[in-house]
Design goal:
The protein has 203 residues and is of the alpha/beta class. The chain has helices spanning 13-17, 30-42, 57-67, 93-99, 101-109, 122-139, 151-162; strands spanning 2-8, 50-53, 74-76, 144-149, 180-186, 189-197. Helix 4 crosses helix 5. The chain is globular, with a radius of gyration of 16 Å. It is an enzyme of class 5 (isomerase).
């Protein structure tokens, strides 16, 4: 059995102001730092064999805060980065919705039909999520793995594990900042123990 913990990075300044991040990066807020430290405290008695993190600063910093004084290795991997939003990155959501109304609507309501010439498609992220998951399962049999990534990436990964089509992507449990999801994989079958839990966070 492989135990996998999924974590979304802590709150960033761009989360607060409503900017799209993607491959861009907003700095962690004080709240984001506190929540990551609280999650590390919550997990302090759970043996974690390895941490995988997106190469984006907000995710890697969250991983470091969770690890704390542990000697557990943190492995950066570009495949865990958020979906690239192209020229939307760093811009306010309300501005994007006004200027690209059809594309923005498709992004949230019909992701399987979303198309743009800037950034990635949801199918692009699905390919790297599937590849990353299979590599982790193969590399860490009978171990406990913690993965720190991003909202859209984690939704796509959990949809893949549930065999959900992309049109159902946003029907899943909301993945908040610094939230924790636990999955146990037995004989290749994933079971969700809990999802999007933020009981360790300050509200």
């Amino acid at each position: 059995m492989v135990t996998i913990y999924l974590v979304r990075h802590g709150q960033t300044e761009w989360n607060v102001t409503g900017k799209m991040q993607g491959w861009g990066n907003g700095e962690l807020t004080e709240s984001g730092i506190r929540d990551a430290l609280s999650l590390g405290n919550r997990l302090q008695d759970i043996p974690i064999d390895v941490i995988y993190s997106s190469t984006s600063k907000r995710a890697y910093q969250t991983a470091e805060l969770i690890a704390g004084e542990r000697t557990v290795p943190i492995i950066k991997d570009d495949r865990l980065r958020e979906m690239s939003f192209g020229d939307w990155e760093g811009r306010l959501r309300e501005e994007i919705e006004k200027e690209f109304s059809a594309e923005y609507k498709a992004f949230w309501e019909t992701p399987h039909l979303y198309e743009r010439n800037s950034g990635e498609l949801f199918t692009d992220v699905l390919k790297r999520a599937e590849e990353m998951y299979k590599d982790i399962i193969a590399s860490h049999p009978s171990e406990t793995v913690l993965i720190v990534s991003h909202s859209i990436f984690l939704r796509i990964l959990t949809a893949y594990l549930r065999k959900l089509s992309l049109d159902k992507l946003f029907t899943q449990t909301y993945i908040g900042n610094a939230s924790l999801t636990k999955i146990q994989v037995t004989d290749g079958i994933p079971e969700f123990i809990f999802e999007g839990d933020r009981s360790h966070c300050e509200e």
